[in-house]
Amino acid sequence: MTTFGPRCTICRRTDVYPKIEFLQQTAQASLAFSIVPRFVLGGKGFTPPSDKLTLGFIGTGKQGRGLINSFAKKTQVLGAADVDQQKLMLFKSITEKLYAEATEQPTYKGLDTYADFR
To answer: Is 77 inside a domain boundary?
Structure first.
């Protein structure tokens, strides 16, 4: 019969305290990292990818052009489709101009256009 008590070698573990210290230090480090504001890690004006939506527009007429002005700050428009080539090119120029100004670049070339969206 095995007895457990102060003389038991199973009960006397020497690696308990280092594990506890490791867990405490890990918890402290993760807490300190989570308190740092997002703009400190990414810089002023940085919008993390988790706070930005990507969109595609099907139909780029008057409604689409109005929506791009509202959505441009919090979204990234990746594609646009319209059967009217003239409306599509107008939408593309407006969108690229908005994103070029937002990124302080001379041009922006991140919008794909599709004239046939079947």
So the answer is: yes
Q: Which domain holds residue 51?
A: 43-114
DSSP symbols for 40-72: HHH-TT---GGG-EEEEEE--SHHHHHHHHHHT
Number of domains the chain contains: 1
CA separation (Å) from 83 to 30, 44, 92, 116? 52, 40, 14, 6
What are 64-96's pLDDT values in tens digits? 888 888 887 778 888 999 998 999 999 999 988
Tell me the pTM.
0.57
Contacts of 77 (CB under 8 A, 6+ apart): 54, 55, 56, 57, 68, 71, 95, 111
